[in-house]
Specification:
By secondary structure, the protein is mainly α. The chain has one domain: MetI-like fold (Orthogonal Bundle), CATH 1.10.3720. Helices cover 73% and strands 4% of the residues. It has 12 helices and 2 strands. It has a two-stranded antiparallel sheet. Strand 1 and strand 2 form a beta hairpin. Helix 4 crosses helix 8 and helix 5 crosses helix 8. It starts with a helix and ends in a 6-residue tail after the last helix. The mean pLDDT is 85. InterPro entries: AA_ABC_transptr_permease_3TM (IPR010065), ArtM/GltK/GlnP/TcyL/YhdX-like (IPR043429), MetI-like (IPR000515), MetI-like_sf (IPR035906). One of its GO terms (molecular function) is transmembrane transporter activity. It is found in: Cell membrane.
């Protein structure tokens, strides 16, 4: 080591990090000031513009019709997500199966239902009676055990649940499949070496590790489904959006009623996001980031 290097090392060693100051970054301060100015402008605009009619928003925020529509939206979300997750699990297993016909059928299903917009699917299922005037149960090309009028069976609620569930199943299949594939195959081999059955291996080894990958996109998908329930208003389903539409069609107070829907959507999405974060922390315990 030369004399110059020794001198440099001595100078560095005498630096006290406790007295160090952060670097001044003018671009960060400028960006922060611009964001603050935009935020203030938005608040002033929301407060000062009388056309928002905040008194009307407060009047209808807890209206019985609005709350009933909110409850229907949440119900459709929960039922659609539950049925979609169950069917998505079956489809994911089919896609990972070594049995060719099951793998092809699951792949085709996912491709079709992910490719067709959910609005088109809802309208199609709502008008299924045009193709099948009668729904029946029986032996194919044989005797019929029971039959029903399609118009009586396919109500707006039935069409909404069917359309949302089938659409959701295609996305959940891909999410679950990705989570399972993310688990190291060596984990399965180790479980089998310890004497675990296939069911025990999946339930105790594969699934807990896969959930770390499955939970984040599933939470986002749940939130997307909640917002997607607004599409059922096109088939006269009494969800949150339809409820506020009924009111503003009568009062012509379009903007404040839409703000009522926005507030409730944001409130529910916030609660769901907090729940998603807790699940992520629970299944991420023991993982070093």
């Amino acid at each position: 080591m030369t004399a110059v290097d020794m001198t440099t090392t001595a100078k560095v060693s005498t630096v006290d990090v406790a007295t160090a100051r952060p670097r001044f970054r003018p671009w960060r301060w400028l960006t922060g000031a611009l964001l603050l100015a935009v935020a203030v402008q938005v608040v002033v605009f929301l407060y000062s513009n009388p056309r928002f009619e905040w008194d009307v928003v407060g009047e209808y925020l807890f209206d019985a019709t609005v709350l009933a529509g909110l409850g229907m939206s949440v119900l459709l979300t929960v039922v659609g997500m539950t049925l979609g997750s169950l069917l998505g699990t079956v489809l994911a297993a089919g896609q990972l199966s070594e049995f060719g016909p099951a793998r092809w059928a699951a792949t085709v299903y996912v491709g079709v239902f992910r490719g067709v917009p959910p609005l088109v699917q809802l309208i199609f299922w709502y008008n299924l009676a045009y193709l099948l005037p009668t729904l029946s149960i029986g032996v194919p090309y044989g005797p019929t055990f029971a039959s029903w009028d399609s118009n009586a069976v396919i109500t707006p609620l039935f069409a909404a649940i069917l359309g949302l569930s089938l659409h959701e199943a295609a996305y959940m299949a891909e999410i679950i499949r990705a989570g399972i594939l993310a688990v190291d195959p060596g984990q399965r081999d180790a479980a089998k070496a310890m004497g675990f059955t296939s069911g025990q291996t999946f339930g105790r080894v594969v699934l807990p590790q896969a959930m770390r990958v499955i939970i984040p996109p599933t939470g986002s998908q749940f939130i997307s489904l909640l917002k997607g329930t607004s599409l059922v208003s096109v088939i006269a389903m009494a969800d949150l959006l339809h409820a506020v539409q009924v009111i503003y069609n009568r009062t012509y107070e379009v903007v404040p009623m839409l703000l009522v829907a926005v507030i409730w959507y944001l409130a529910v999405v916030t609660v769901l996001s907090l729940g998603q974060r807790r699940l992520e922390r629970r299944f991420g315990r023991g993982v070093t980031v």
